[in-house]
C-alpha cells in the first residue's frame, strides 16, 4: 500500500469463521449495463488509493474487467496477493435454480480469473426463466424461487471452497426468516438499498439481532440508474449538514451509514470522487446531526417494479418485495 493510500476498517462476518469484510466497497454497476476498459482503469486507481473491496455481479457485465484489473494489480505489484482483496459477485435470477447455482458461480470465477470469491450473493429473492439474461426481467419470465434448493446449492458452493461466504441481496426480514428456518449456513450479508432517505430501520434491527451484516447499495441515492433520481443529493437537511461540516453531501451520507454499523458499496469511476469517498473515517456526525437525518421523511428509490418490464402476462411482484424492504 502506497503512502497516500487509506486503510479501511473491516467488519467480521458472523457465519464465516472470522472472515473480515472492508466496510467501504467499490461498486461496478452502471447504466446502461456494460463492461468496459473504464471499469478496469477505475479499479486499478481504487486499489492504488487503498480500496480492497470490489462488488460485481453477473448482471453488471463487469466481472471480466474486474478480473483483468486484479491480474494487472498483481503483475504491477499494487497488491502482493489476491488474498488482500475482498471480491463479491451475485447470482442472477435466471440462474437462481438449485441445479444452476454452482455452474453460475464457476462461470463468474472464470470471468474474474479467480479460484474463489469472498462473498457470493443471491441478487434478488425471485427466479426467472433459465437461459435468459434480460434486464429488466419480462413479467412473463418471473418464477417463484425455490428458496430451499437454491440456498442448499449456495451452501454447497461455500463447502467446496469456491466462495468464503454466502449471502443475499434485496431480501426482506420475512424472506430472511424463511431461509434462517432451514439454513445450515445462515446468510452472512444482506445487501439492500440504504441511504438517509431509505434508512431501513426495522431491517437493520432484524439483521443485527440475527448476526447478518447489512451492506448498503445506492448509499447516495439512485441517480444514474434506470429508475434513478437525485433526491438524496438534493435533500436540504443533508445539504445543511454538509455545509456546516465543510463536507460534501456524499460524504455525509457515507459517514451516516458507517455510523449505523452498515457496510457501504458506492460506485464512482471519477478519481476525485473516489478519493473523497474514502475521506469519511476521521470525523463524526454530532448527536443533533444524526437526529436530523433520522427524522428525514422516508421513501424508497429502487423499487421492485423497476426490475420488471411490461412484456408478457401480468404477474404479481410480491416475490420481490414484502415487509419494509
Automatic annotation (TrEMBL):
<feature type="site" description="Lowers pKa of active site Tyr">
    <location>
        <position position="90"/>
    </location>
</feature>
<feature type="active site" description="Proton donor">
    <location>
        <position position="60"/>
    </location>
</feature>
<feature type="binding site">
    <location>
        <position position="123"/>
    </location>
    <ligand>
        <name>substrate</name>
    </ligand>
</feature>
<dbReference type="Pfam" id="PF00248">
    <property type="entry name" value="Aldo_ket_red"/>
</dbReference>
<keyword id="KW-0560">Oxidoreductase</keyword>
<dbReference type="InterPro" id="IPR036812">
    <property type="entry name" value="NAD(P)_OxRdtase_dom_sf"/>
</dbReference>
<dbReference type="InterPro" id="IPR023210">
    <property type="entry name" value="NADP_OxRdtase_dom"/>
</dbReference>
<dbReference type="GO" id="GO:0044550">
    <property type="term" value="P:secondary metabolite biosynthetic process"/>
</dbReference>
<protein>
    <recommendedName>
        <fullName>NADP-dependent oxidoreductase domain-containing protein</fullName>
    </recommendedName>
</protein>
<feature type="domain" description="NADP-dependent oxidoreductase">
    <location>
        <begin position="25"/>
        <end position="295"/>
    </location>
</feature>
<dbReference type="InterPro" id="IPR044497">
    <property type="entry name" value="AKR4A/B"/>
</dbReference>
<dbReference type="GO" id="GO:0016616">
    <property type="term" value="F:oxidoreductase activity, acting on the CH-OH group of donors, NAD or NADP as acceptor"/>
</dbReference>
<dbReference type="InterPro" id="IPR018170">
    <property type="entry name" value="Aldo/ket_reductase_CS"/>
</dbReference>
<dbReference type="InterPro" id="IPR020471">
    <property type="entry name" value="AKR"/>
</dbReference>
Amino acid at each position: 500500500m502506497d503512502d497516500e493510500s487509506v486503510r479501511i476498517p473491516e467488519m467480521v462476518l458472523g457465519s464465516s469463521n472470522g472472515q473480515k469484510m472492508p466496510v467501504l466497497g467499490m461498486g461496478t454497476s452502471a447504466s446502461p449495463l456494460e463492461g468496459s476498459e473504464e471499469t478496469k482503469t477505475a479499479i486499478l486507481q481504487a486499489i492504488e488509493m487503498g480500496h480492497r473491496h470490489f462488488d460485481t455481479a453477473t448482471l453488471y457485465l463487469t466481472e471480466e474487467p474486474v478480473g483483468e484489473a486484479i491480474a494487472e494489480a498483481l503483475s504491477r505489484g499494487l497488491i502482493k496477493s489476491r488474498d488482500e482483496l475482498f471480491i463479491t459477485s451475485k447470482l442472477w435470477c435466471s440462474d437462481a435454480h438449485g441445479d444452476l447455482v454452482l455452474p453460475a458461480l464457476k462461470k463468474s470465477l472464470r470471468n474474474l480469473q479467480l479460484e474463489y470469491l469472498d462473498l457470493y450473493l443471491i441478487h434478488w429473492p425471485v427466479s426467472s426463466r433459465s437461459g435468459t439474461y434480460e434486464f429488466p426481467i419480462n413479467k412473463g419470465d418471473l418464477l417463484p424461487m425455490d428458496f430451499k434448493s437454491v440456498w442448499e446449492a449456495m451452501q454447497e458452493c461455500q463447502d467446496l471452497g469456491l466462495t468464503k461466504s454466502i449471502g443475499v441481496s434485496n431480501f426482506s426480514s420475512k424472506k430472511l426468516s424463511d431461509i434462517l428456518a432451514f439454513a445450515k449456513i445462515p446468510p452472512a450479508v444482506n445487501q439492500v438499498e440504504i441511504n438517509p432517505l431509505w434508512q431501513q430501520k426495522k431491517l437493520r434491527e432484524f439483521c443485527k439481532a440475527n448476526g447478518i451484516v447489512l451492506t448498503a447499495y445506492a448509499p447516495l441515492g439512485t441517480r444514474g440508474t434506470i429508475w434513478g433520481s437525485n433526491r438524496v443529493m438534493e435533500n436540504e437537511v443533508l445539504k445543511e449538514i454538509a455545509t456546516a461540516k465543510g463536507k460534501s453531501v456524499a460524504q455525509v451520507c457515507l459517514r451516516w451509514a458507517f455510523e449505523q454499523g452498515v457496510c457501504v458499496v458506492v460506485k464512482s469511476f471519477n478519481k476525485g470522487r473516489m478519493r473523497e469517498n474514502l475521506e469519511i473515517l476521521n470525523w463524526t456526525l454530532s448527536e443533533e446531526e444524526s437526529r436530523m437525518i433520522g427524522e428525514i421523511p422516508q421513501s424508497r428509490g429502487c423499487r421492485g417494479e423497476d426490475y420488471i418490464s411490461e412484456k408478457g402476462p401480468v404477474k404479481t411482484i410480491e416475490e420481490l418485495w414484502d415487509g419494509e424492504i
